[in-house]
Input
Amino acid sequence: MTNLTLSQRIKKNIWKKIYFIFPWMQTHFLKWHLAWHEKGRQPYHIGWLAPGKTLKDLERHLHTEWGFGNHFVAWHDKGQVLSWRKLESFDEQYHIRVFRDGEIRGHHEFTPESKPFEHFGEINEEARIEEFRKFLGRYIVQKKYISRLRADVNIAPDSEITIDDKNYTKNGRHKE
Output
């Protein structure tokens, strides 16, 4: 990741303190109607998990080849079994979701660390379908193919991606 500006370093340090309480905040903000989130699925359909591919295969591919990783600062969509992001910069990220039936959806957006109000207000979200198809490669098909996927509570525990992760290059590719 490139050098951060003073403003970005301040935001990063604030978020380092918020990360551990964020799930509680998210739950209670929804409960107290201080934030809203639709219970359905985000609108950006990309395709379906290819026949013969598993969620584990997809996780390994996205993490190893493209630097995606788990990120809990995201709304939970109904039926979601995977919610990962790939940092493009401090300000922008790709966010991908996989659902129980094998549908894959994703969008490009501001990071919550950079622009929290815009992020949670879903301002400036874009589909960027071609980029996601490049990331997914042979793991995605366009013809509807129903899977029966289960969320894995042990999803890549070493891949929690936070802004201060030093294992990412300027273009967001994962360093080994």
Notes: Residues 165-176 have pLDDT under 50 and may be disordered. The longest strand covers residues 80-87. Strands lie at 45-49, 69-70, 80-87, 92-99, 103-110, 140-141.
